[in-house]
């Protein structure tokens, strides 16, 4: 838990954020969010 709370002190630069956004933009999402039997329980 201490490690997780420590994440709140991390400061990202504009360059860090740009690099994160670029990396996320390159990820192609495939497939459904949930398997069919879970989606039915989630009301989707």
Mind explaining what this structure looks like?
The chain is an all-alpha fold and 44 residues long. The protein has one domain (13-44). Helices cover 52% and strands 0% of the residues. The chain has three helices and no strands. The chain has helices spanning 2-6, 14-25, 36-41.
User: Class by helix and strand content?
Assistant: mainly alpha
Summed up, the helix count is 3
What is the typical, i.e. mean, pLDDT?
91
DSSP summary, beta strand count? 0
The end-to-end span amounts to 33 Å
- How much of the polypeptide forms β-strand, as a percent range? under 5%
Uncertain runs are none
Radius of gyration: 17 Å
Main beta-sheet strand count, sense and barrel state: none
Task: List key phrases describing it.
44 residues, mainly alpha, 3 helices, flat
Which helices and strands occur, and which strands form pairs?
Layout: H1 2-6, H2 14-25, H3 36-41
Summarize the structure.
The protein has 44 residues and is mainly α. The protein has helices at residues 2-6, 14-25, 36-41.
